[in-house]
Specification:
single chain, about 290 residues, mainly alpha, 9 helices
Length: about 290
């Protein structure tokens, strides 16, 4: 059974939740930058590595990171100023268009900001504004970034999965969520479970059913919530993934052999488990014993 003290913390106040929501809006704006730029940074680094190994001139010598260059309109190159980058509000004021060329700005940007803000408020309200609440915020922000990157590019970057894993072990050094022993076993079991499924599927079908990033993400979830909640997380992610996959095939004509990223479902299951992991596990155990 999961420990009774799973992420025990005093509920937060309404004021703390409001502050968390405002902070979350700003973080959501930054996460949009991470989601867009991190895959490009990885590709540029890979291109430079290949060129270096071949003794050729590096194709990318300009600075490109999460801070540089300044954000610009993808249509006309207009630099985006601070007033044009206010979370949610700027998009509404500009009616989803660039102030210069009137090119469309994706609605996903304010949606990510709004969801991050709302989730931040919910986490602080639920877990408080102490160490447990702050840890839950970091957990959520990393999962949001990974969800969107995996959806867009079918990859879960080590730059996000590994910090999530190590941060989970750090948080549990003093048993903030689960005892450290459970966290270490959870990280090991999380990785090995999907690693085993991957190789079994490959031996049977000759195809790769998932990526190594999925192994690392489940290992990270195990490091945060311990080994006892891994079955709940796997079942939740599998059920949601199956429902969404069947829906895409049935209603949008998605090809059956078109890969569907598993990371978003693992991330969603991890968030559900953070809030309701113990009740869900108890319900499942009671249902099985009935």
């Amino acid at each position: 059974m999961p420990p009774e003290t799973f992420l025990f913390a005093a509920p937060g106040t309404a004021a703390a939740a409001v502050v968390a929501a405002l902070f979350g809006l700003l973080i959501g704006s930054f996460l949009n930058v991470v989601v867009y730029r991190l895959p490009i940074m990885r590709q540029r680094e890979f291109d430079n590595y290949i060129a270096h190994e071949a003794g050729k001139e590096l194709p990318h010598q300009d600075r490109f990171n999460l801070m540089v260059p300044r954000s610009r309109c993808p249509h006309c190159g207009h630099p985006i100023g601070a007033l044009e980058n206010t979370p949610v509000i700027s998009w509404l004021v500009l009616r989803g268009k660039c102030s210069q060329c009137k090119g469309g700005i994706s609605a996903r940007y304010p949606m990510v900001e709004a969801v991050t803000g709302a989730l931040s408020a919910a986490l602080v309200w639920h877990f408080g504004s102490g160490w447990a609440g702050l840890a839950s915020l970091a957990f959520a922000y990393l999962l949001i970034a990974m969800t969107l990157i995996d959806y867009d590019h079918k990859e879960l970057p080590d730059e996000l999965t590994l910090p999530l894993l190590w941060l989970g072990l750090l948080v549990n050094l003093d048993g903030t969520i689960v005892p450290l022993r459970d966290a270490v076993i959870g990280a090991m079991a999380g990785y090995l479970v999907l690693w085993s499924v991957y190789w079994l599927f490959k031996l049977v079908t000759g195809k790769e059913g998932m990526g190594y990033g999925d192994f690392k993400l489940l290992a990270a979830l195990g490091a945060w919530m311990g080994w006892a909640l891994l079955p709940t997380i796997i079942i939740l992610s599998s059920v949601v993934g199956a429902i969404v996959g069947i829906g895409l095939i049935a209603f949008r004509g998605r090809a059956r052999d078109n890969p569907i990223p598993f990371g978003p479902y693992l991330a969603g299951a991890g968030m559900i488990a953070l809030f309701y992991g113990i009740p869900l596990t108890r319900y499942a155990q009671g249902w099985l014993q009935a």
